[in-house]
Each structure stands twice: as structure tokens, then as C-alpha cells.
Amino acid sequence: MKRLKIVIPISIIVFIFAIRILDQNYGEDITIGIRTLIALGGALFSGVISYFLFPGNQNQKQH
């Protein structure tokens, strides 16, 4: 549960920045549906990466 407190905001931030950058650079070339799919893919990918990179429970004893 502690991981999701970090993963969800990271995914949302990546999604917002990806939409902004795609809109600024490729606004006329790419439709809004494709831009949304690209940004959603980036957000999901960054969420998966951050889920595995950030530690879950640091208080547990390691065996």
C-alpha cells in the first residue's frame, strides 16, 4: 500500500507532462486520441518501473 502512494502521483505527473509535450510539439500532426494513448502508455510504464524501484516496507527484517 505504501508503494501506491508514490506510484500513482508519479504516473499522473508523467501523464500530464506527456500530454503537454505532445500537444506543444506535435499538436497538428497527432490526433488527441493517439496523444492520449501515448501519454497513457508512458504513465503506465513509469508506474510499473517506480513500483519495482521504490522499496515497499523498510521496517521488516530481511532474512
UniProtKB/TrEMBL annotation:
Keywords (A to Z) from UniProt: Kinase, Membrane, Transferase, Transmembrane, Transmembrane helix
Listed name of the protein: Histidine kinase
Kinase listed as a keyword: yes
Transmembrane segments: 6-22, 34-54
GO MF entry, a single one: kinase activity
